[in-house]
Specification:
alpha+beta, 207 residues, 8-stranded antiparallel β-sheet
């Protein structure tokens, strides 16, 4: 399957075609681009806290935010690091894609009636997730059926007004109840359909 860069990501027809090719398309698609707030961390815990160096940042992160809640930045200890590692190692292939910290800087997401399709996005070697650098990795598309998802919601991010967190909590991830660390812009100049589809997504999720 041919992958697309930002030129293709900004074309609703092109991304709809991508999802059609992997069998994840219907009349009422809801396609948005999200970035990975936990991307670029070399270790499961310590470096995530470096990236989210405030208490607010920690709360808004992925697995570490779920573990430490109100912990002070830098207070992550070995036992927490071990639990984060155990969490990642316990995930099946699809959930490992969703919580990836090393390979995928973002995700192209399609919320349809039967579930949520996810095409991972690579970052062109850049260290910080930036929509202009993203390129699809359609060969690693994954689909989560509705009965695999415990909760899905749009949550506020501390000190962010133009984006929110698309927070999916999957069944079978143990007691941590960790949300996906996906930052979803409400609109983006390079993604013309983001604004309309974000509003559609907010309506679907009741926000």
């Amino acid at each position: 399957m041919e992958n697309v860069d930002i030129k293709g990501l900004g074309d609703l027809k092109a991304v709809t075609d991508l999802f059609s090719q992997v069998g994840c398309s219907e009349d009422d698609n809801c396609i948005v681009v999200v970035t990975n707030r936990d991307f670029g961390t070399a270790s499961y815990a310590g470096d995530i806290m470096t990236a989210n160096s405030t208490i607010a940042g920690a709360k808004a992160g992925g697995v570490v935010g779920g573990l430490v809640a109100g912990a002070v930045a830098g207070a992550i200890n070995a036992s927490v690091q071990e639990k984060v590692g155990e969490f990642h190692n316990s995930l099946d292939y699809k959930k490992q894609i969703a919580f990836d910290t090393r390979n995928y800087a973002g995700f192209l997401v399609n919320v349809i009636s039967t579930g949520i399709g996810v095409i991972p996005l690579k970052n062109g070697g850049q260290l910080i997730p930036n929509i202009k650098d993203l390129k699809t990795d359609a060969d690693n598309f994954v689909f989560f059926e509705n009965d695999e998802i415990e909760t899905k919601a749009l949550k506020k991010l501390p000190l962010h007004f133009s984006s929110v967190k698309l927070a999916l909590c999957f069944k079978g991830t143990g007691e941590l109840k960790v949300d996906t660390p996906w930052e979803c812009p409400k609109k983006h100049k390079l993604i013309p359909y983001q604004d309309e589809n974000f509003n559609k997504l907010a309506a679907k999720l009741g926000k």
